[in-house]
Specification:
GO molecular function: 3',5'-cyclic-nucleotide phosphodiesterase activity; metal ion binding
Strand content: under 5%
Number of strands: 4
Order of helices and strands: HHHHHHEEHHEEHHHH
Helix content: 55-70%
Shape: globular
Structural class: mainly alpha
Keywords: Hydrolase, Metal-binding
InterPro entries: HD/PDEase_dom (IPR003607), PDEase_catalytic_dom (IPR002073), PDEase_catalytic_dom_sf (IPR036971)
Oligomer: single chain
Largest sheet: 2 strands, antiparallel
Protein name: High affinity cAMP-specific and IBMX-insensitive 3',5'-cyclic phosphodiesterase 8A
Organism: Nosema granulosis
């Protein structure tokens, strides 16, 4: 990719093989620059300790690790910057970014969990709740009660599971589109806003954001996932390409096509995803 507009460049960052200390510093900076921690009555030092303890619970697996957590957080923070013209409560921003960073906490590796189960999401939520309870002075201090957003937090974590993909996509589609002759047309008089269904859609896009980045990043991310699932070195083969094609066609493309039809400044993600599919076809 060449001539990337300056405002889009932060989206293409892809972290891997970071030490957790460096990961934590980058994450803390993203939280500080994305949120008004002072207005939330968040003690920065205690919050950083919370993040450190939480990130230590990520396991050294190939894909669902602290690098993936940081990439999802970085993308989520970028999305919030692109959506600054919309009203989003500081508490909701905090919960969204926490969900981005912690949504795969304690993941043992895909080969140890079936993807058609919500047990893993329950495991993630349970671990996060334990950590937040341990640091309740951070999240329930001087009128600050981030814990009141836990229902939203849980919904965001669950929405990252592919089992909920169709449900999230259907609700977003129902809100913004009408079907005419089997073609989806944006509804008249329904303007974009950021509520729960939009946040669910955004965290799903952030979670699979590698599919919307450069082809090199997309393939590298696929390599890491394949290593985790197979438990062995990645081998380029037709079957692996087909799995990637299926994923783009079934999940990545429908999601970003509809979201970017409403939120126009996300169009470049849609174009990138289509290009990645074309490049896969050429290999």
């Amino acid at each position: 990719m060449v001539n990337i507009p300056e405002h889009e460049q932060p989206f293409y960052v892809f972290y891997y093989n970071l030490e957790k200390k460096e990961n934590l510093e980058i994450a803390m900076n993203l939280f500080e620059t994305s949120l008004d921690l002072k207005s939330l009555n968040i003690n920065k030092d205690r919050f950083k300790n919370f993040l450190k303890d939480a990130i230590d619970l990520y396991k050294p697996v190939s894909y669902h690790n602290s690098d993936h957590a940081l990439n999802t957080l970085n993308t989520g923070a970028y999305f919030l910057r692109q959506l600054k013209m919309y009203t989003i409560k500081q508490g909701e921003k905090m919960i969204f970014l926490l969900a981005c960073y912690l949504h795969d906490i304690g993941h043992p590796g895909s080969k140890d969990f079936k993807n058609n189960s919500v047990e893993l999401e329950k495991h993630h939520v349970r671990l996060i709740q334990q950590q937040m309870t341990k640091y309740k002075d951070v999240f329930m201090y001087n009128g600050n009660n981030i814990m009141k957003y836990m229902d939203l937090f849980t919904e965001l974590i669950y929405s990252t599971n592919l089992l909920y993909h169709e449900d999230v996509l259907r609700k977003f589609t129902r809100k913004y589109f009408t079907e005419v002759d089997r073609t989806l047309i944006p509804k008249e008089g329904v303007g974009p806003e950021i509520k729960e269904i939009e946040l669910k859609t955004l965290i799903k896009i952030a979670d699979i954001s590698a599919t919307y980045k450069s082809y090199k990043t997309f393939r590298k991310s696929s390599l890491f996932l394949n290593q985790e699932v197979q438990g062995k070195a990645f081998k380029v083969c037709t079957e692996s390409h087909q799995e990637d094609k299926d994923f783009l066609n079934m999940y990545s493309l429908p999601l970003i096509e509809r979201f970017s039809a409403i939120f126009k400044n996300f169009k470049f993600l849609h174009e990138n995803c289509k290009l990645n599919l074309e490049l896969l076809e050429q290999e």
